[in-house]
Fold this sequence. Notes:
Blueprint: E1 2-5, E2 18-22, E3 26-31, H1 42-47, E4 52-55, E5 62-64, H2 65-76, E6 81-83, E7 90-95, E8 99-103, H3 105-112, E9 117-121, E10 127-128, E11 133-139, E12 143-145, H4 146-156, E13 162-166, E14 170-177, H5 179-182, H6 190-198, E15 203-212, H7 215-227, E16 232-236, H8 247-252, E17 257-261, E18 272-278, E19 281-288, H9 291-294, H10 299-308, H11 315-319
Parallel strand pairs: 14-15, 14-16, 16-19
Antiparallel strand pairs: 1-4, 2-3, 5-12, 6-7, 7-11, 8-10, 8-13, 9-11, 17-18, 18-19
Amino acid sequence: MKEIRTEDAVGHILCHDITQIIKDKKKGVLFSKGHIVKEEDIPLLLSVGKEHLFVWEKKEGILHENEGADILYKICAGPSMHGTDVKEGKIELVADTDGVLKIRRDALLAVNSLGEMMIASRHGDFPVKKGDKLAGTRIIPLVIEKEKMDKAVEAAGPDPIFSILPYQFKKVGIVTTGSEVKKGLIQDTFTPVLKDKLAEYPTEVIGQTTPGDDKAQITADILAFIDQGADMVICSGGMSVDPDDRTPGGIRDTGARVVTYGAPVLPGAMLLIAYYEKDGKRIPILGLPGCVMYAKRTVFDLVLPRIMADDEIFAEEVAAYGEGGLCLNCKVCTFPNCGFGK
């Protein structure tokens, strides 16, 4: 930066804030760091005693914070999101659609490890809505070396750090197990909960069956829904390790690939996730434990958004739920704006 006469500063960029104090009326920033001085600014600057200013001196290989911010934004933003206007080296990313936020975490860490720049985001693998703020970026100093921004581009790689997987419409079949439900001994209170949660997404429930505890019938009902065009099958109940709980075996007997039976999440430890392959299509089959019926938030709330966005779930990702997998059952639930599942 260099010091120049205020009268000669038109077109230059301020390297520091200019404060204006008017007794009993005002105390605040008159012009912010990074402001480009205009002709009409000169009288105001002189009125606050600024006869000289420190301004940015343009040099080869040195970028202004706003130029660096634009580069940072470009390595961050994927489709279905936009950036806010750049201001003081800052740009925020905003969602243009509902879906699941995906983050290339290795790239995010690599860029943030470079220093003099930062990217802060909400948690990935969670649902976002159109208009939600996804991330904020900033160049820390007023100017930054172009070479450093080139390193950021290299560290991030060719793909955007952030992307949104939009939800896909799904036809859903529900298989309600348990002889007590089949025989009408108890009221089915599980299905209404499922339908309420599914209604938050683009879904159509194409049917419900009550095969009791007949493992072969559970298998047959799942396969029948798939033959009817179901994009997802949910089995409710009978997920414990007791000998008379037949749901896990019924799911396995379909020939589906079981990703996990069990999750380090409370409520929801007995979750089963499987995928059935048909005609090149991957159809999720879920075995849901009974806690989904009565607990406000469970493992189902963690996996359902990803399934609705066709985001394949892997066993190691479920295992990672262990840290943050304990729901605290707060009196006022703020999920997903809490630590559950993160």
